[in-house]
Amino acid sequence: VAKAFEATSVTWPDTADARAEGRSLLAQWRPVLCPVLTCIAYYLGSQIGFALTFRPHPVSVLWPANSILLAALLLTPIRGWGAVLLGAFPAHCLVQLQTHIPIGMMLCYFVSNSCEAVIGAGCIRHFLAGPVRFDSLRSTSIFCLYGGLLAPFLSSFLDAGFVQLNHWGAGTYWELWRIRFSSNVLSALTFAPAVLTWFASPLLNGRSWRRKEFFEAILLFFGLAATTYATFYKVGPSPNPTLFLAPLPFLLWAALRLGPRGTTNAILTVTFLAIWSAAHGHGPFTADTPEQNARSLQMFLIVMAIPFLFLAAGIEERAAAEERFTNAFRASPDPISITRVRDAIVLDVNERWLAMFRYDRAEVIGRSLFDLKFYSSPEDRARLIGLTAGDGALRDFESSVRDKNGTSLCVELSGVRADVGGEPCLIITTRDITDRKRAEEADLNLVHAARLAALGQLSASIAHEINQPLGAILSNADAAEMLLESDSPPLDELRKIVADIRSDDIRASETIGHIRMLTRKRTTQLNPVNLHDLIMDVVRLVAPDARQRRVSLEMALTAPQCTVLGDRVQLQQAVMNLILNGMESMAETAATGRDLVVRTVEKSPEQIEIAVSDLGRGIPPDKISRLFESFFTTKENGVGLGLAVVRSIVDAHHGSISAENNPGGGATFRLVLPLVTTESSSP
Amino acid sequence: VINPAPDQQVVHLVDDDESFRKAASRLLSAAGYEVRSYRSAGDFALASHDVNRRGCLLLDVRMPGPSGLDLQESLAKEDGSLPIIFLTAHADVPSSVRAMKGGAVDFLTKPVKRDVLLNAVRTALARASQLQTTHAHRVELRERVERLTVREREVFQLVVAGRLNKQIAAELGMAERTVKAHRAQVMHKMEATSVAELVHLADELHSEQA
After folding, report:
1. In chain B, N or C: fewer CB atoms in 10 Å?
2. pLDDT digits (tens, 9 = 90+) for B13-62
3. Chain A partners within 8 Å of B121 (Cβ)
4. What is the pTM of this model?
5. How close, in Å, is residue A458 to chain B by CA atoms?
């Protein structure tokens, strides 16, 4: 039966291993094949059912035909269900005619059988995407609940009703219902899973069974068959109850080693042999009336089948999860290590890890990371363990580690804590960020270099700004000295001098502070920054330069909100570069028209725009697109870093920058930055 | 007081930095000078125009409006009698060259040592007084020349050119005796006691005109 059905299994992508030619042939013949195969299987199933009937009781203990129909529907797309049912109909008629039942009853039986299959398959299809595979607790639960219980439960009402209606069977309505129900549940739980698992994975394509497994299966089934035969055939009517447990080790074996397919078939084997024995008057289930015997046997088999179905599914699920993990572990492009929390002993590492750290597997497995001098600073390990202690997960922990040769690598470690073999372990993914670090360093140097270049441009202004107060201080001190040498030193005047010296000193140190902020090499530190204050600071700093260049600086800081999250010094640098750039571009402009305007406007409720407009020579239109690249310049003696730096600063602040020529001459640079919303603006 | 000035000599201070202006004023005052300070070149031009520009000028280079160098240029066009000391917070080569070519006494950078500053001021004031003396002498000479009649000036020029009385009489078409009278008048009016002195005065006048 299973072999016959294999041919129709092309319905699901999982069975797509079928050879392409076979597929096309099958696809061509499927509309015919499905009903024909269903017909044959249904007929055979019915014959088996008859064979397992307890005489003289007319109801079969196991009625495989219904579960074959259920399986057939589950293996067919819904649009093919009509054809499947149509295929089953002749088989049904053929079978039932042998029993000389009335035509009406025969049709009624078909209706109730079809109902059961359609209800079961419909519900399962509704709740489960994809085929029923008995490899997860979820799919097994859904199958047992809807196919194994609900469908027989509902259809049995119909069935019993039909029997009563046709005055066919003996017994009360509820008796009939019960007999039907238990027989259908049993066949649904034993027969259908066996059929379905044969289709779930493509055995006949020869890939999935290794030779060892195959022999194991053969051995198991012979053992099971022999035990079951001994228990249910050879033993007398009232045996020692522990004998019923005899097949269980084999079922456990199947569940543990052979997966859902082995388990369902083992269950089916036990079921078949037990019923067959009882039907032939052998074994423990022959002591009472046939009804009693049938009921006891059915209960025994149902109670046995369900736990093993779930056990196999659970084990399969675990195995699949483990396999997924193992595959991910092996195939991961990132190096992964599994180490014990307790002593940093390496339990396993993947190939990438070995490649990255230049070890052979034998050199690391079973050894402690500390012995390998893996961490540049061993306290990193303790921090890792501390960080994974809470919810057990850690992301992007920067650390410095060493490979076998002792070469330092900058890495980002991400990981979880998990129990492996009952021992708390760290599963750590390593990402090499040495290159990224270097690039960041280079960026930092670029910013620094450009800042120094800007500083060079400004050095005249800076010298001026510092020497001014220093000059005043020296002259004040000289004056004071001279006044003190007089006969009656003017104390009031001397006090004023001292006060002036102090304020000039503060002025000088403030100027130095500004310069230090400019030259210090720093990483981005994000703080709420008032852009208007910042712009005014920059303007104060460039004012002497502007005076010398005879540029008039105008401010129109009109944005209602001006707090952004950013690095004060970097943003100053960006604004300063734009202003210096604008001033430089006006070198050839007539002295009366050297106006530089700095504006801020609300670009959107979340964004502020800073526009720096000059009346200079503008940007050659073909150069606008390249303006923000490093080392690109339109100036004769520029190095082409200023705007690139602005760009990198703006990028770091999640902003944007654009440039355009003004209609009336000159250019405007627009810098858009995200505003800090009011809730978060308080530091 | 280290440098007591005999009569309060004036130092004009032009600088846009208020605190430096104050400090330098104090120092120069303590040194006995009369200091007049101005915020910009424009202020100086307005306040001191035509007032007797005595003393010297202590001038910042970089200022809003006209720079110190601009002011130096425009003063040179007027009469150039005011010695200038430049004092800047940032000295660059082009501006110092331009300043010295323009006749500046010195080009100093802030912070400036007291002795350096006061020496420069002294030098400038000395030059100022020297200029003042020369200037007064020239004015005096010019006044003497003014007193000569047209004829006497002609005679004066020819005498200085080394002509004899007879030649002058022939050239100007007058009697030799008349020439002698004019000549005595010239000597008297020019306050010269000899022909050699007269030639010297003529040279001085000549050099001034050139």
Report:
1. C
2. 999 888 999 999 999 999 989 999 998 888 888 876 655 567 899 999 88
3. none
4. 0.49
5. 12
